[in-house]
Design brief:
The chain is α/β, with parallel strands linked by helices. The chain is 55% helix and 17% strand. The chain has helices spanning 35-43, 74-83, 114-121, 134-137, 142-149, 153-181, 183-200, 206-218, 220-236, 241-258, 266-289, 294-314, 318-336, 338-384, 434-447, 468-481, 494-497, 525-536, 542-558; strands spanning 2-10, 13-19, 24-29, 61-69, 90-98, 104-107, 110-112, 125-128, 391-396, 413-418, 426-427, 456-460, 486-490, 502-511, 514-522. The strands form three sheets. It has a six-stranded antiparallel beta sheet. Strands 8-12-13-3-14-15 form a six-stranded mixed beta sheet, with helices on both faces.
């Protein structure tokens, strides 16, 4: 439900704030006062394109902002939560139009795109005017409207699940067929790659180990010299470390004969001597066995070159090469069993297709039953709007045509209408008369009210081409629709305006050399004055005023 609308610097609107209520909100005013400008501003909230021409002269930007109560729309709340715009039971939409072209959309204070705005606003607002009939006039939505009206969404959901399962298996069969068509060629290619990797006899981490060995062999001369020198310093020459250490141990022993308080342990020193002696022996053996091995170094280079080539070809790392080997084995196994797999999937597909066909037929039968009810209900409402010759039909494709399945079933349905006796039924979107179309949409909105397509419906020029008793009937229907939706109705007819739960007047004023549009909520005498103006035109008489009062009182009694 639209709670509040703020418009700033838009066309001839300087600054405007209007609060709306649940029920029927009527908007009236002189021709040219700016009612259509308000509709244009609201259209921006539906994702319509904006241009700099919409900005008030001498201003750099225009702003349209609306606050909605969405507590009765859990589906929209869930969508907002998924998109990251969740803000409880209220939704704030703001559009900023700039002369620089940097237009912006904000949803609950967060930047958004026009695409996101359109996806959200389609369940918030529906503007029904002579040129904006949106969902109801779009034939692609007619099957959805019928399913909503007939409470068929659970059956359709069950069908859609089967349809998805069929599509998945058809995709799998196509993949297997493509695999089978190039089976021999593909199998040879896979076996060649697998043999190439297998022949290399790779081991995890082998490249790292070989690099370390190469580094050692490439520096063997330096290693031999360093190990020999270290051995000599420990053990192999006079005044070596071990010889000096043996003298240190003897000196400590002499000290402790005289002074036992020395904290150094002879045993610890002996252990240190033996550790260094072991180190010297290790260095001796290392030097003895270290030797130049050009053949081994060449073999390592060849091996690393092989590993490098395989890494470049199969993924960049040794792990990727080994992973590719596993993938090749898996694909070869699949290819070898492609016939068996295709047979298995085909059997599953046949079962799923049969189930899908049953579900589609059930859905189709239910749709035809509900279509009859929809036709009768809409014709009843249309006839009550002084279009007694009108016929409404839900047209399905011919039964002898081959069934074409999609995610919504096997039916193509479109709404057809005939407004005059003897006239051929035609698609709903080809109706020429604006007045007829307004009444037809009003009738459909009333019938479809329980389906709950949107929270707010705006009827623009719903009174086009009608008057008198028909206008009064339209007013009653609008009030009936307003029991299910919030309704905003722009009208020139007092027969409609008198049914409003709240009445607003749009006026155009000139101040400071500038023209501005204003909107005022009317009550009491103000509303009576506006109703009198709508009835009497230029000349307002006492009789006209009494007539206006009587209309308001009669509308009030009918609403009880």
């Amino acid at each position: 439900m639209l709670i509040e609308l703020n418009i700033k610097h838009f066309a001839i609107i300087d600054e405007l704030t209007v609060s709306f209520i649940d029920g029927l909100n009527v908007i009236s005013g002189e021709t040219g006062a700016g009612k259509s400008i308000i509709i244009g501003a609201v259209s921006l909230l539906l994702g319509d394109r904006a241009s700099a021409d919409m900005i008030r002269s001498s201003e750099d930007s225009a702003v349209v902002e609306a606050l909605f109560d969405i507590r009765k729309n859990p589906a929209l709340q869930g969508k907002l939560q998924e998109m990251g715009f969740d803000d409880g039971h209220e939704l704030m939409i703001r559009r900023v139009i700039s002369r620089s072209g940097k237009n912006k959309v904000y949803i609950n204070g967060h930047l958004a795109t026009l695409g996101i705005l359109s996806a959200i606003s389609e369940s918030l607002l529906n503007i029904c005017g002579q040129h904006e009939h949106q969902i109801i006039l779009n034939a692609d939505h007619h099957i959805d409207i019928l399913d909503e009206f007939g409470d068929l969404l659970s059956i359709r959901s069950a069908y859609a699940e089967c349809y998805g399962q069929v599509q998945a298996r058809q995709d799998r069969i196509r993949s297997l067929q493509a695999m089978n068509e190039k089976r021999a060629e593909r199998e040879d290619f896979l076996r060649f790659q697998l043999r190439e990797i297998e022949d290399a006899g790779l081991a995890v981490g082998e490249d790292t180990t070989l690099q370390e060995e190469k580094k050692r062999l490439s520096n063997i001369q330096k290693l031999m010299e360093s190990s020999a020198r270290a051995h000599d310093r420990l053990y192999g020459k006079s005044s070596c470390v071990l010889e000096e250490l043996r003298g240190v141990i003897a000196d400590i022993r002499e000290i402790k004969k005289i002074d036992t308080t020395l904290s150094l342990s002879e045993q610890d020193m002996e252990n240190l001597y033996y550790q260094l002696e072991d180190a010297a022996l290790t260095l001796r053996d290392y030097t003895k066995h270290a030797a130049l091995d050009p053949a081994r170094l060449e073999a390592i280079d060849d091996r690393l070159e092989l590993i490098g080539r395989l890494r470049r070809k199969y993924g960049g790392t040794l792990e990727a090469v080994l992973a590719r080997k596993s993938a090749l084995e898996t694909e070869l196994k699949e290819i070898s069993f492609v016939d068996e797999e295709m047979e298995r999937v085909s059997e599953e597909l046949a079962v799923r297709k049969a189930t899908m066909g049953e579900q589609a037929n059930l859905l189709s039968r239910k749709r035809r039953e509900k279509a009859t009810l929809l036709e009768k209900a809409i014709e009843k409402e249309i006839h009550a709007l002084n279009m007694s010759a009108t016929k409404f039909k839900v047209q399905f494709k011919a039964d002898d045509e081959e069934a074409h399945y999609n995610e919504r079933g096997m039916d193509d349905a479109e709404f057809y209408l005939s407004t005059n006796v003897g006239e051929t039924l035609k698609p709903l979107n080809r109706i020429a008369s604006g007045g007829e179309l307004s009444r037809i949409i009003l009738a459909m909105k009333k019938v479809l009210a329980r389906a709950g397509f949107v929270g707010t419906i705006i009827f623009d020029e719903v009174d086009s081409g009608i008057g008198g008793a028909t206008a009064e009937i339209v007013g009653e229907k609008l009030r009936d629709v307003a029991r299910h939706y919030q309704v905003l109705c722009i009208t020139h007819l007092p027969q409609i305006a008198c049914f409003g739960d709240r009445h607003y007047q749009v006026t155009k004023v000139v101040a400071g050399g500038k023209t501005s549009t204003c909107v005022d909520m009317l009550s009491g005498e103000e509303r009576l004055n506006e109703m009198t103006r709508m009835l009497g035109g230029v000349e307002l008489t006492k009789k006209t005023r009494e007539h206006a009062r009587e209309m308001l009182e009669r509308a009030g009694r009918k609403g009880m």
